[in-house]
Amino acid sequence: MAEPLRIMSLHALEYCERLFYLEEVEEMRVADERVYAGRRLHVEIEKKDDARKGNVLSRPDVVRRKKKATKPNANPEPAWAQRAESQQPVQDPEETEGERVTLSLESEKWGLTGKIDCIRRRDGMLIPYEHKRGRSARTPDNKPEAWASDRLQVIAYAALLAESTGQKVTEGRVRYHADNVMVRVPIDDQALDDLKHSISRARLLQSTIERPPVTENERLCVKCSLAPVCLPEEARLASMLSELPPEAREVRQLKLFPADDDRRTLHVLTHGARIGRKGDRLEVSVLGEAPQLHPSREIGQIVLHGFAQISTQALRMCGQQEIGVHWITTGGRYSGAWVSGTGSVQRRIRQYRAFTDSELCLQLAIRLAEARARGQLSFLLRSSREAERSSPEMQSSIKAIRKLLSPMLRATSIDSLRGYEGGIGAYYFRALPDLIVPEAGEEMKPDGRSRRPPRDRCNALLSFGYALLLKDVMNAIMVVGLDPSLGFFHRPRSQAPPLALDLMELFRVPLVDLPVIASINRKQWDIETDFDIAGQQVWLSDEGRKKLISIYERRKSDYWRHPVLRRSLSYSRIMELEVRLLEKEWMNEGGLFARMRLR
Ligand code: SF4
Q1: How many structural domains is the chain composed of?
Q2: Considering only CA atoms, which residue is closest to atom 5 of ligand 1?
Q3: Residue burial 28-47, b: 16+ Cβ < 10 Å; e: rest
Q4: I need a surface site. Which of 113, 298, 567, 587 has the fewest CB within 10 A?
């Protein structure tokens, strides 16, 4: 038998079908200030109820159909609740007019479960009440009325109350606190038909893997707590850009996706350091030092470098509070992440289906390769304008990259695209030594690109920078709920998940190459103490890692203006945004992914 629907989910359904789908099917919930304020209102109401319970019932807040195991005569249930469990009509808990209780109800007949804010008896009739913080809707002649979603919610409560008590419930009421009005909702045949229709629509949506389109009423999105994950403005923009000729495209300022991340990343580099939990704080302990405490709400990610440890209790708290936990080896390689959930199955099915479409994969890969190649070209061009960094080798690399760009965009297979992309990369890395100013020293110049292991200091910096980037891209993929192990461009060859490798291409130049070369040119590196050299292999020392982490984290919080969305966001937010835009590519809302360009 299907799980009962939460009555609140019908409220969401009436508000916006996509909201219902995101919350109830894909199980995404984001509590924002409005949600918290709503919860506070309900807590206040419950407190008032508790204060009045001296003359009502000890705890009349749960009516379940399943009998609980209780000791005979120990802590006896109120009489009306006992009758409810035996499925007899429930006697009204409030024999006196004006008394109120909160009540949880569940009905097999309706397939619904929910908690009524309060019930009153008026003129002998039971009336369910719902409290709302906001204002009521208005009729054309300015009379207060209930919003459709609130009306449906109170109808559902009335239906369950009538079933539980065996009494007729002919009216529900919604109290709007902002304009201090009470709206009466008739519970008649029309109301019950509307409820049935809404339940069957909810069941239908639960059975599909397609996410419903964004609502046409834009004003609903402004108040919706899921706007940052739904990205309604971006979906509308994608549809507008695809339908209109360029001259008619007018892009508005889009603001529903938060511009910055207010939670920071906690890097733990000391070998043997231990992260534990102390209340709602994370405690980092290092032998011989005073422990450091970090409020968990301020942390978005924990990165354990080398042999740092984390306790089960701390891991559990990270799972509950959606704090990403990542491990990077002593050699500077990204080794994995811990995720508390697996993401919704509908989302995964859509992703798998999309990535079995070879034409879609090719088109996405071309866009990705173009974004990276244009970023590399812009970086070289920008540097070549500075006299001391321009060289014949750099000019020839720029020319060769330009020449390869057009055929790359016309690639007809992933393999040929890889060939063009590899060629462009080789020319780019050939020019990289010329980007280093002479004062930085020959030791800091790269000799081509060497990965495993890095063979010079510049490559050691790039490799560790890419490991940090991989960690952040993985975190963004996990937050969005896609499967990192299936990508559209990279093959599953190494330990690194292909989708993360795909998305990294967008950020290698702006988040790693650019700040690393700039830091070398600023002579920020000590060629002795910041590096450990073992034969042909060059690694960063602990000191060097700390320095690069701080350069990288600073860069991540830089703002950058997205050329299509035309608004500035921090790079860390852009990573998540690009993952969400990628997902839209297979949900009929595509066209905006990988449009970012370095200028
Ligand atoms: S942001 Fe808008 S379209 Fe998206 S779920 Fe909320 S109300 Fe619906």
Answers
A1: 3
A2: 19
A3: beeeeeeeeebeeeeeebbe
A4: 298
